[in-house]
Amino acid sequence: MRPEEIERTSMAIIERELAERGIVVPSDVLPVVARVIHATADFDFAESLAFSEGAVEAGKKALTQGATVVTDTRMAASGISEKYMAENGGVVRCYMADEDVALEAGERGTTRAAVSMERAAAETPEAVFALGNAPTALLRLCELMSEGRARPALIIGVPVGFVNVAESKEALIKTADAKVPWIVARGRKGGSPVAAAIVNALLRL
Fold first, then answer.
1. CB neighbours (10 Å) of residue 65?
2. From the candidate CATH numbers 2.40.320.10, 3.40.50.10230, 2.40.50.90, 1.20.1640.10, the one assigned to the domain spanning 44-204
3. Of all residues in the chain, what percent carry a pLDDT higher than 90?
4. Which of 21, 95, 130, 163 allows an S-S link to 116, with CB 3.0 to 4.6 Å?
C-alpha cells in the first residue's frame, strides 16, 4: 500500500472504532482528535481532549496567516510538517536547547522550560504554543498571560507525566480567558507527538 492509502485506511479504522465504542466526537474537532489517535493508537484521547469554544478555527486562522509555533521540545518541533508550515509562511521555534536559556535558568535557579516561555513571550507573544512535555512551561505561560506579557493565538497544552501535569492543564483552563483559545489533553496523557499531531491536523485543515 502507498503511504496515502495507509493513512486513509487508518482514518477509516479510527472512525469505525469510535462508532463501535459509542464515542461521538463533534465534527468540528473530529479531524484533530482522529489525527491524535492516528499518532498514538490511543482512543482515550477521544474523551480526554478538550477544546475551548472556537479553538480549532482560531488555530486554523493563525496558522494560515503564518503564525510562529513555539514548542517545548525539539521532538515536537521536528514532528510538525515543514511543508505545510512553509506553504503558510510560518516558522517553528524551540528555545529549550539554546545555551543562553540554559545559562539563565542555572543562574536564576529555575527551569529551562520557564525561561524558554519568557523568551517566546518576549519575541512572539501571539504565537501558537504547542507544549507536550514540560508542565513548568505551561504553568509559566499561564503566569505570563496573567501578567499581560503573552496573548497566544492558541495554546495546545498536552504535557505528559505525573508531577504537576494534570494540574498545569487545569490551570490553563482556569487562566485563559475568552481571548485565548486552548486545546488540552486532560489528565496525565499527552506528549510531544500529540502536540505535533494537533498542529499538523490544524495545518491540514
1. 11
2. 3.40.50.10230
3. 96
4. 95
Q: Out of 38, 61, 119, 151, which one is annotated catalytic? A: 38
Convert the pLDDT of each residue in 90-109 to its tens digit.
Answer: 999 999 999 999 999 999 99
Q: Which residues, in sequence order, are CB contacts of 80 under 8 Å at separation 6+?
A: 69, 71, 92, 130, 196, 199, 200, 203
Give the start-to-end residue ranges of the domains of the chain: 44-204
Helices (H) and strands (E) counted in the chain, each on its own, are 11, 6
The per-residue pLDDT for 199 is 98
Burial environment of residue 164 by CB neighbours within 10 A (0 to 12, 13 to 18, 19 or more)? middle
Amino acid at position 25, single letter? V
